[in-house]
Design a protein that fits this description.
Elements (H helix, E strand, L loop, with lengths): L2 E5 L8 E5 L9 E10 L2 H8 L13 E9 L11 E5 L8 E5 L4 E2 L6 H5 L2 H14 L7 E4 L5 H12 L3 E6 L2 H8 L5 E4 L5 H8 L5 E6 L6 H5 L2 E9 L12 H6 L4 E3 L3 H4 L3 H16 L7 E6 L3 H9 L6 E5 L1
Parallel strand pairs: 8-9, 8-11, 9-10, 11-12, 12-13, 14-15
Antiparallel strand pairs: 1-2, 3-4, 3-6, 3-15, 4-5, 5-7
Helix pairs in contact: 3-4, 3-10
Length: 323
């Protein structure tokens, strides 16, 4: 019988319960997939805690990969036997699941299902950040917070491939080495050095056109201090907690700044947008400009342990839950 992680109340990692489930035959427009792995992401924590509330009970997880077992009426995008991956809708912490077939992407031969489970959400997020939210160009100098994390490592590599100089924040020397090996030219150990002062030093006082901040409360206001006039503050996560409200006047006082809070699912809402984003990601991985490093593996039934490691900042790169 298939199993899944289920959440019946919001809370800490202990609310992630391993339970037997029934999975129906796919209805019109649906596919049933047997999963090989699911990706672990901070958005899963936000769903679990209720920061981004979901109707209870629910199965968390926003990305996964596996093989199509069956399809419902009207499905032509995929067929049984296809290796597929996806980012959203939630429900990936499961052996077997139903999903709208139009959210599935068929995998190239060169990309394994485990690799795909580790990169769809994070990789398409990186694509959104450097090609759509702010179009990184050769000669730009940018700041990436959590540079040794899952999105961070991909973002550093992608931006470096575009010709940018990448500054990144990390918490340890080991993470600095990891970020440096993935395209980060100037890793800053924020537990030791003031990243605002370091940005000033590295840029000779010119500051930055863009900051990518997934940390949230601990870094937001000081990230704004790293921007040059008319720079863009991209807040795309809350790893340290949600950002307190600010007055729009702050953006004026700091130099007519732009502020955005992008969500990937608004950038891959249509089938065409999804396919273009996935194709761009696959191209970067297949040509070697972006490496997907799976640094941690947990059994799906041990999802609570994986969440504890993620929230304790003990993970680097990508983490998958294997099935």
């Amino acid at each position: 019988m298939p199993h899944a992680i289920r959440v019946h109340q919001f809370g800490g990692p202990e609310v992630l319960q391993w339970e037997a489930i029934d999975v129906a035959d796919p209805g019109p427009g649906e596919a049933r997939i047997r999963q090989d792995a699911a990706g672990l992401n901070f958005i899963d924590v936000y769903h679990r805690t209720g920061l981004y509330p979901q109707p209870l009970p629910f199965t968390p997880g926003s990305e996964g990969a596996g093989v199509v077992e069956a399809v419902g009426d009207g499905v032509t995008i995929v067929q049984p036997g296809d290796r597929v991956a996806y980012a959203g809708p939630i429900g990936s912490y499961a052996d077997v699941r139903l999903i709208p077939a139009n959210r599935l992407i068929k995998l190239p031969e060169a990309i394994s299902t485990e690799q795909a489970a580790a990169m769809m959400l994070q990789g398409m997020t990186a694509h959104m950040l450097v090609r759509q939210v702010y179009r990184v160009a050769q000669g730009d100098t940018i700041l990436v917070h959590a540079a040794a994390g899952g999105v961070g490592l991909i973002l550093c590599q992608w931006a470096a491939a575009l010709g940018a100089t990448v500054i990144g924040t990390v918490s340890t020397e080991a993470k600095a080495d990891l970020a440096r090996a993935h395209g980060c030219h100037h890793p800053i150990i924020y537990t030791r050095d003031d990243f605002v002062a370091e940005v000033e030093r590295i840029t000779g006082g010119a500051k930055l056109p863009v900051v990518y901040d997934s940390v949230g409360a601990d870094t937001f206001l000081r990230s704004i201090d790293c921007l040059r006039p008319r720079g863009m503050m991209v807040s795309y996560g809350n790893a340290s907690g949600p950002v307190d409200p600010i007055s729009p006047l702050l953006l004026a006082h700091k130099g007519s700044l732009f502020l955005t809070r992008p969500t990937l699912f608004n950038y891959i809402a249509t089938r065409d947008e999804l396919e273009r984003s996935a194709a761009a990601l696959f191209e970067m991985v297949e040509n070697g400009q972006v490496r997907i490093d799976i640094k941690q593996r947990f059994a799906l039934r041990d999802a609570a342990e994986a969440h504890r490691a993620l929230e304790s900042r003990l993970t680097t790169g990508s983490t998958i839950l294997t099935i």
